[in-house]
Amino acid sequence: PITVLMPIDDLAEVDYSLNSLPAVFRAFIDLDLKGIVYPAGNYTRPPYVAAPFTIPDQSDSMLYLAFSEYFFQTSSFAYYTAGAFNITIAEEVKSEKLICFLIFFFLQTCSYFNISTEIFGSIIPEVAKYSVTPYPVMLKLMAAEIPIISLEQDSFTIEIQGSMAVFAVLPDSTTQLLFTMNITANTSIALNIFDQKLMGSLCLNR
C-alpha cells in the first residue's frame, strides 16, 4: 500500500493510508484508514498495538468518523518525542498559550497575568523569605513520561506525569532556582458539537 502522510503542524505528521481496499455496499462506503501519528520526519513505529473496534450500526447521518485509542496514543507519543510537553513560561503569559500545560498546573485565566515570586511566596513561606522584593518568575515544565490517553464511554482521560522547576528572574537577567516539584494529573475531557463547533469540557479527576 502507498503511504500517505500529511503534516499536522511543525511537530507531527499523520499517516492516513488505507489499511485495506474500500468496502462498497449498497448504502455506504467503508474506509479503513491507518491513523498513525509520527513525529515530523521520524517514522519509527510507535510502541503500541492497534486493537480492532466496531462502529455502532446507525444510518441517520451522511458521514461517520471514528478514531481509535491507537490514534490518540500515537499522537501522544509523537508530541512527547518532539518535545511538545517541555515548556518554558516567563513573565507575562497569554491564556491561549496555557492550553498545552493546564493539565500540569491547572492554571486558568481569561486574559494576561503576571507570575512573580510574590505569588509563590504567599503559598510557600521559604520563597517569601528568599525574595523580599518581588521578582518575575520563570517556569520550566517537563513531561517525565509519555502521557497516557484512554478512551471512555463519553470522554477520554489523560494522565500526565511531569515536573516543574520554578526560577526567579533577577535584575541582571540571571535566574535563581527556587524549587522543583513532581506532578501527576489525571483529567477527563468530553467532546461535544455545539453551534457547529467541536467543544471540549475539562474535568480534573485528581
From TrEMBL:
GO molecular function: lipid binding
Origin superkingdom: Eukaryota
Entry keywords, A to Z: Antibiotic, Antimicrobial, Disulfide bond, Glycoprotein, Immunity, Innate immunity, Secreted, Signal
Subcellular location: Secreted
A cellular-component GO term for this protein: extracellular space
InterPro entries assigned: Bactericidal_perm-incr_a/b_dom, BPI/LBP/Plunc, Lipid-bd_serum_glycop_C
Lipid-binding serum glycoprotein C-terminal domain mapped to chain residues: 29-206
GO BP annotations listed: defense response to Gram-negative bacterium; innate immune response
Major localization class: secreted
Pfam families recorded: LBP_BPI_CETP_C
Function as written in the Swiss-Prot or TrEMBL entry: The cytotoxic action of BPI is limited to many species of Gram-negative bacteria; this specificity may be explained by a strong affinity of the very basic N-terminal half for the negatively charged lipopolysaccharides that are unique to the Gram-negative bacterial outer envelope.
Entry remark concerning the domains of this protein: The N-terminal region may be exposed to the interior of the granule, whereas the C-terminal portion may be embedded in the membrane. During phagocytosis and degranulation, proteases may be released and activated and cleave BPI at the junction of the N- and C-terminal portions of the molecule, providing controlled release of the N-terminal antibacterial fragment when bacteria are ingested. The N- and C-terminal barrels adopt an identical fold despite having only 13% of conserved residues.
Subunit annotation: Monomer. Homodimer; disulfide-linked.
Designated name of the protein: Bactericidal permeability-increasing protein
Gene name per UniProt: Bpifc_0
